[in-house]
Write a structure and sequence with these properties.
The protein is mainly α. The protein is 55% helix and 4% strand. It contains 9 helices and 2 strands; from the N terminus they run ααααββααααα. Strands 1-2 form a two-stranded antiparallel ribbon. It is rod-shaped. About 9% of the residues have low confidence.
């Protein structure tokens, strides 16, 4: 059906007496009606035809309105969906902050914050030196954070994929010490902070309990009061914790909370032998230095031989100058082996 372009109700009845309608008028008159009856028939036919077109116009208008409303509804739905998607994307990019307990107050003791590098190692459940959790390590992290933007990112490989990670999480400190090089005070304070942070980052309870027992056995070991006891315990703590992480990565983990006395005794012997060797080197250096000074003294006295003053070389340790202890005395200064 052809589309109606204008509203038929607005059309005026034509004048059928115009020459344009003469053929139509004469055809009707030829059938018997008078001129007036023919004009009336023509007017009535036009009105019927116009009414039909008005009906079609109304149907067409209703259909056009329905289509327009459907299009508007579809456009509105599309815009709302796009707006909702944009809102979701904006919410994803928007910084998040968790809720808080209105009745809770800050803790009585605040644990110093280590570096991003150490925190990333903890989140990844990887080995990290305890120095980062010591007061010195946290202080160094605080000072370096002033010059390193924490929102700077770099590429890293994570679980086989390339991902962006904070630049601060890549950089190990040049001041970091191995666990066995820490002082006992540094070790004792760092292990407490370390245990707090692994708990915050959701390490398995089994691993946390084993590490807590591991540190407790070391800090309360009876050999702490022995010579070289703390030094040996620090070596044990450093080597065993590193070995524990290595074995865990190989799926060969052991219980770090069980103290291995045989390994401790071996490390104790190593510490004693190292100190003994160092003491012997010091004794040897002292003796060589004294001999050099004695030779210099003899050389300076040779030109005075015409004074007929007898010059004798000490024949034993008892005749050495008072400032020079005997070799046997120096050996007594060397560390004794552990009992």
């Amino acid at each position: 059906m052809n589309r109606i372009l204008t509203d038929p109700a607005l059309e005026a009845q034509p004048n059928f007496e115009f020459p344009a309608y003469a053929a139509w008028l004469n055809a009707i008159i030829a059938g018997g009606p008078t001129r007036e009856e023919a004009l009336a028939q023509m007017a009535e036919g036009w009105k019927l035809e116009r009414q039909e077109r008005i009906t079609l116009w109304l149907q067409q208008s209703e259909e056009d309105l329905r289509i327009q409303q459907e299009q508007e509804e579809q456009e509105r739905t599309t815009k709302e969906a796009e707006a909702a998607e944009e809102q979701r994307e904006a919410e994803k990019k928007k910084p998040k902050i968790n809720d808080f307990d209105a009745e809770a107050i800050v803790a009585d003791v605040l644990i110093p914050r280590p570096s991003q590098y150490a925190l990333q190692k903890i989140k990844s459940m990887e080995y990290v030196e305890l120095w980062y959790f010591s007061p010195e390590g946290c202080r160094e992290a605080s000072e370096s954070s002033r010059t390193t933007a924490e929102d700077s990112f770099g590429l890293a490989k994570v679980d086989g994929y390339v991902a962006f990670k904070p630049m601060a999480s890549f950089k190990a400190s040049q001041k970091a010490l191995q666990d066995h090089d820490l002082s006992w005070r540094q070790f004792d304070m760092a292990k407490t902070s370390f245990l707090v942070h692994i708990d915050k980052n959701g390490w398995p309870d089994k691993h946390q309990q084993a590490l807590a027992l591991f540190f407790t056995l070391i800090t309360n070991h009876e050999h702490r009061v022995h010579p070289r006891g703390e030094k040996t315990l620090l070596r044990y703590a450093g080597f065993v914790r590193r070995e524990w992480h290595d074995r865990l990565s190989q799926n060969q983990g052991f219980n770090i909370g069980i103290f291995n006395s045989a390994l401790y005794n071996t490390l104790s012997d190593d510490v004693w032998e190292a100190e003994r060797d160092e003491s012997i080197k010091l004794v040897y250096f002292y003796i060589q230095s004294h001999r050099f000074k004695t030779d210099q003294l003899h050389s300076s006295l040779l030109p005075c031989s015409h004074l007929r003053v007898p010059i004798t070389t000490p024949a034993s340790a008892s005749t050495l100058p008072p400032i020079m202890p005997s070799f046997g005395t120096l050996l007594l200064l060397a560390p004794l082996p552990p009992i």
